[in-house]
Amino acid sequence: MRFPYSAALCGTLVFLALADQAVADAATGRDLSRGCAVCHGANGIGTAPNNPNLAGQTEFYLIKQMQDFRDGRRENEQMSIIAETLTDEEIRSLAAWYSSIKITVELPAK
Questions:
Q1: Which of 47, 74, 86, 94 is the most buried (most CB within 10 A)?
Q2: Which residue, 59, 27, 53, 57, is CA-closest to 40?
Q3: How many structural domains does the chain have?
Q4: How far does the signal peptide extend, from start to end residue (predicted)?
Q5: Domain for residue 4, yes or no?
Q6: H or E segment at 29?
Q7: SS (H, E, C) 64-106
């Protein structure tokens, strides 16, 4: 079954997501991230095996995950509590900061 409006809908959703992210402020996110550094490191690299790396993740992914923690769609003993206090603007700013960190990958030698 084909949905003739699906392409237009997808385009609209992408536009809205990008417009929403446009108000994100990476500098504010950097300031907010000081509280995240204990688990996620000052550079966005997790400080323990159970703490994910946030550096270099896409803004969309980070926003979605933090909103899911905040809204109860995703649960973690610590993140659920921390995220419940975050506003949408703070989430966007944190995502802007972590996604702006550039990471590199080095393949192992043969």
A1: 94
A2: 53
A3: 1
A4: 1-26
A5: no
A6: helix 26-32
A7: HHHHHHHHCCCCCCCHHHHHCCCCHHHHHHHHHHHHHCCCCCC
